[in-house]
Specification:
binds ligand GGE, 10 helices, Rossmann fold, binds 1,4-dihydronicotinamide adenine dinucleotide
Amino acid sequence: MPVSDLAGRVAFVTGGASGIGLGIVTVLVERGCQVVIADLRPDHIDNALAQFAGAGRSNAVSALRLDVCDRNAYADAAAKMQAEFGGIDILVNNAGVGLEGPALKATYADYDFGFGVNVGGVINGFVSFLPQMIAHGRGGHIVSTASLAAEVVMPSHMAIYAASKAAVCHYCEAVKQELGENGIGVSILLPGPIKSNIHQANQNRPEHLRADSGFVESEAKLAERQVGDWWMEPDEVGNMVAEAILSNQTYIVTHGIFKDSMRKRAQAVLDATPDVENANVSGI
Ligand code: NAI
Ligand code: GGE
């Protein structure tokens, strides 16, 4: 059965030490969860733990350094959660990188960076944790962070990013029913602009994917970008995520500002689709 009450539940939040993930952690703690933050960046982890210590909530939050691309480390983290908490109830596949750069200059290093974190990190979360979440029989929920970039036609310099987020969205849509039959709810977070450190993509790029990158200049420029005053606060996203877990809501969409672009893309696909009478696809 999906999660009907957050109090006492154990949550594992990747990328939980900054931005959207930290907003989700903050709200889950407020709602009574025991939360483990998994993040790449020691500086972000230190800042996040200091925030919770300052609020007198150190007992409810711990953290471990994890690169979600490292499958062995991810398996070790899942084993640790099983040993310490009897498994997790809520997995938030939130870690991601907002890489961008000229599509014609993209190299395998850039594709591997974008898909490795944004898709590979989500896959590794499912593979590492789904068995224990089903086995413990308490029910559970998996939230994966995609983007509204998955639902519009994005500019060329964000092609890798958009494709990676579309993959997350379609994978989660596809597995939702079967996971539900196994007591695991599924939600897909589709944020618009949220106040975060997403502009720091170049600080999150692994060493082995730096030298050959075609995005060095674009990511250096991105790193200088300021957070928009009108962008949404992470805690507001956290509240949307908490409510979506409780209602097993499939899509969590933070903004309506791209709705016309979303509709235009969907209509373009429908316009290219032949009309048929009484289509029967039950056998597929
Ligand atoms: P952020 O950069 O503030 O937070 C992301 C966190 O993930 C950071 O603490 C970073 O250290 C961590 N991280 C990066 N690579 C990692 C890895 N390989 N392993 C483990 N942790 C890793 O950025 P933000 O915006 O909070 O991003 C969270 C998610 O939200 C991402 O998937 C992003 O694509 C997505 N998103 C963000 C939007 C925004 O406007 N900020 C809008 C739509 C989607
Ligand atoms: C706020 O900064 C970013 C970013 O640098 C990369 C990606 C995103 C935000 C988000 O995933 C979304 C918007 O919030 O992606 C878009 C970025 C730019 C234009 C449109 C986007 O989505 C429709």
